[in-house]
Structures are given as structure tokens and as C-alpha cells.
Amino acid sequence: MQVRRRASGDSSADATPGEWRGPGPHPVAWYRKALPGRAARAVTDAVALASALLIATLLRHDGHIGEVDFTGLVVLSAAAAVVQTAAGIHFGLYTGRWSYGCFEEIAALARTAAVTTPALFLLDTLMGRLVPRSAIIAAGLIALVFTAGVRYTVRLLHDNRLRPSPEHGTRVVVMGAGEGATQVLRAMLRSPQSPYVPVALLDDDPAKRTFRVMGVPVSGTRDDMADVVRRYRAEAVVIAIPSASAELIRALTEMAQPLNVDLKVVPPVVELFGRTVRVEDIRPVSHADLLGRREVGIDLEAVAGYLEGRRVLVTGAGGSIGSELCRQLARFNPAQLVMLDRDESGLHAVQLSLDGRGQLDDRNLVVADIRDLQRLDEVFAEHKPHVVFHAAALKHLPLLEMHPSEALKTNIIGTYQILQAAMKHNVDRLVNISTDKAADPCSVLGYSKRITERLTAAADATATGTYCSVRFGNVLGSRGSVLTAFTAQVAAGGPITVTHPDVTRYFMTVQEAVRLVIQAGALESKGEVLILDMGEPVRIADVAKRIADAADQHIQIVYTGLRPAEKLAEVLLGPDEPDHRPNHPLISQAPVPPLDGAVLSLLDASAQRDELIAVLHWLSESPALPKKPHPVITGKQRRSPENVVPGPRS
């Protein structure tokens, strides 16, 4: 806080009435703090060059001091200091452009020497040959060695002061000797408070057997893990490979289990977003790392082309997929990111994750229900989005089997109304998020999402923009995912319930899924469904066993049998859908027969459960119906012969 007062005892010039004064002395200007250090560097380099001139001259005269012209040497050294300082300033050597002793500064040092040496050669000629010419050339090389050596020594002393003490940190063996490992070692060794002290590296590349990274040696391959851990008395193993696949992490986990060491890992590439690894990023291996981790390439230029500077709307923004979509979309600098959900707590959580405030005072946070067409029209009219990601949906298969009318109202009618609002307000691009249950569907969830894929394809044929659907399977870490359920069952003391010993599912982390969804939105498509490659399916029983084995107590696994409409194995492509990948190696593009939205008049949420499911099944497979309006079939009308709804095809 500043106090407005008149200083007593000062001269009239200093004690101006009404002068604003701080409570303490004025802060020192930045250049007054920086100049002494930069001047010291310039003086050190000048002394190094003068010493190099003396040594080179003595060498030229075979060490005979009497033959040296010290007066001329002093004059030339003074001229050399001026030339070198001027060249160093020009190349950024003394302007604080780089940290002391880094590679960029050494390169600037070499450029400075390359300019200073010929300049001294010319000055010496003009001044009457003060020193031998060969001494000037040799002095340039010697000075470069001296100045680089000084920088290396200072940098080494500085790094040694920052290295944590082996007595106070956890001794770790780092798996990997590439760029990821270098970042990890730098993070560990540049802070005295680091909880980790790297003692050895492991890498499968034979060419790296003699490597040392920041003084830490490569001591073997992954097969030598047990021997290296015992030899260096390591307490933990850190997998420092951001691009490590789930298969590699599973293999290393199995090797580390009998060694009684903590196994830790750095985040995958999709979580780092190009930034360097920090000590805080190192964490225990999660089940998501073991199941769904892989490197997902993304065409940043294409993605930024349709997101940067555009108004983007995300429905279901408070959910697992929607919230991660918002976090990743924000990195592409949209002009406006509108987050829509009927769950106000979900919106609060996603805003908190984006800006750390969570004040709920932003008009871009929209509380709305996609079942309310009038409200959707208000939202689209206010924000005028260019791009829409439609993630709002009901997704729990058993619940929707019991309550199919809710799938109709949210998944089908809600999506149709989003499509209608998007077309009315000229949205350029819409991505409808679907599920693998829509491939060869046999459940209410699958029927409803297949119908939305077909409605999206019909909208794409009519709209001026690009409208497509993206289909993928189970997302690890999402609300209601199998890992969440298993973890809760373990916390409750068990048992873990699995439907069938041979049931398999596709898995992908939420970051990977969203990254591919964003990439899919950049692809050119004609009402197609874009299917994300989710790798190989995983046996749920194996997942359950792994979680049970990791628990602190004995956890039983119980098989309950497949639930109604549940598949033993999911598929990503329907029987008539080709695995065609014209634009991205991890995204298949399959044609979708459009479905005219007018047929939704055949659906009645108050219908009997079995009848409604039959109509949903039929609509998911039916040919496109004519665009003639259909009357809404009520419960009373349904019994009359002329209003019988066609049943599912055999």
C-alpha cells in the first residue's frame, strides 16, 4: 500500500506536495542489476584473449621472454578487448540472450572469435606488426578454448551445487536414454530439493552402452534391470519414455515386480503437449498406462486451421469426454470456447481446471438441456459457433435397456435438435461423438447412437458445412468406466465383478481419444463415421486380476454373466463398413446411410418398452425414408392396424 504524504526535511525539489511515495526504497532498475554480471563476462573474455596473445607470442619465440614486445602486446590486447566486446554485443554474448555456458552461447563465442581474429590481424598490420602474425591466429584458438573452458567450469560448479544429495533422495534407475530421459535427469539434478537421485540408466540400444547423460552412466538393457538395481542399491525405477506403449510398460512392470522397488513413469506425449518433463510429472504407473497408452500423432497445422480464432461450442462439457475436449481445445487458441451442460457442478469443475478460478461468471459457461430446442436456439443465436463438438449423451448400456425412452429423448432427439440448431445458425463443422456400440448394434445404446450417426449423415448432405460422427470404444478414467468400477469395488473390500471370463473390450485413455476426435474434425468427410483405431482388445478378466493383485488385501473375482444386450466382444466396424483410412493411419472412414429426421415422428417416448426398442432397432437398420412428414404415433393410435410400426428386420 502506498501513502500520500509530504516528506519533511527534504529540499523543495524533493518534497513536492502530494507526491506518491512507497513504503520502502525504489526498486533497482533491471539493467543496473544485469550490467555488473554482463560486464564481468566481457572483462573475463578480454583477460582470456590477452592471456592467449601472451601465450601465443611466447610460443612463437620459443619461450624467450626477452624477444617479446610487451608494450606492443599491451596495446594490441587493449584493441582486442574493444573489438571482442563490440563483436560479443553484436552476437548477443553480453546482452543476456542465453543462459551462461549453454550451447547457443558457445556458438556465439565461436562467431565472436571468428570476427575478432581477422580484425586483430588487420589492426596489427596497420599498427606496424606489434606481435607475430602467427601468434594472432593461434591466440584466437587459444582464447576460444579459454573462454569456453571458463564457461564450462562455471556451469559445472553451478550444476554440482544444484544436484541433490544421494543420502537424502530416492536412488532411481532410469529406463531410457533418449530425449525423455534427458529431460527427466535434468529435472532431477537441477534442484537440491529433488526427491530423486538418478544412479544409472537402462537402454536397449547397443549404441548407447557407453553413454553418460549428465554424468549418469548407461549400465545395461532392460534385461539387466535386476542386476543394476542390486548393484546401485536403487529404490525405484522410472520409465522415462513419454512415447512408451502400454505393451512396453506392462513388460517393464512385470520385470520390476519381484525386485521390491517402486515403479514410476513420466506422462505420455499426449499429456505433455510438447512441454518438458518436470519432477512433479513423475508418478506411479496407473492402470491407464498399462492398458491404453500409445503415441497419437496429430496434424497441428490442420487442427489449428479449423480451431484457431474460431468460436467453438462443446455440449456435455462437464462430462469426462467433454471436459477433456475443452482442456485440449483451449490450447488451440479459439476465439471463444462455449461450454454447455445441464450439470452446473460439471461446468464448475471444467472451468476450475481451465483457469484455476471457477467463479462461474463467464457467459461462455452455458447451463442448458439439449432436449430443449428453444433454449438451444437461444444459445446458438447468442454465441454463433463456427465449430460444434457434440459430446452430450447417456451412455450406460444396462440403464438404457431398462429405460429406452431416455435414450430416445437425450441421445436421439437431443442430437437431432443440436443438428437442427447448427444448420439454422450456419455452423461450419460439427462432430457428433458416437460409440463402438453403434457398430452392428444390438442394444438400446447402440441403436440410439447408430441413429444419431445416420441423422448426422443426413444433416451433412443438407448443410453447407461438414458434419460427421466419430466412433470409439471404452475410455479409461471416464465416469462409469470399468477401471473406476473395479477401483471402487476394491476400496469396498471386494469382490470385483466381471460379467464373463472371456469378455473383451477396446480401451483408450481420455487424452488419446480426445486428441483423435479433434484430429478427426479436421478431416474432409461426406457424412461419414470416423472410427478411431483403439489397438487390440483387452480381456476384462486380466484387468480385474491385475487390480486385485495390486490391492493390499485379498480381493475375490466373481463372474456374474453377460447382461441383456451385452456383447462378449465389441467391434468398431459394422459388417458392411470397410476399414478405409485415406487421411490418417489411426482413423477409418466409413460411409453412413443417411436417415431423414422426419422419421422421428414414428417414435413415442410413452410407448411400451419392447415396442420402443423394436422401433429403435428397425430405424437403426432401415433404408432412408421419404422426407414426407409422419404423424406422431400415440399410445392410443398404436393399436389401430393402419398405424402399426414396422418391426425389426430379421
Automatic annotation (TrEMBL):
UniProt keywords, alphabetically: Membrane, Transmembrane, Transmembrane helix
Lineage top rank: taxon: Bacteria
Gene3D superfamilies: NAD(P)-binding Rossmann-like Domain (3.40.50.720)
Region described as Disordered: 1-24, 625-650
Cited Pfam families: CoA_binding_3 (PF13727), Polysacc_synt_2 (PF02719)
Annotated TM spans: 42-61, 73-94, 135-154
Polysaccharide biosynthesis protein CapD-like domain boundaries: 312-588
Entry keyword annotation includes Heme: no
Family assignment from sequence similarity: Belongs to the polysaccharide synthase family.
Protein name: NDP-sugar epimerase, includes UDP-GlcNAc-inverting 4,6-dehydratase FlaA1 and capsular polysaccharide biosynthesis protein EpsC
Originating species: Actinoplanes derwentensis
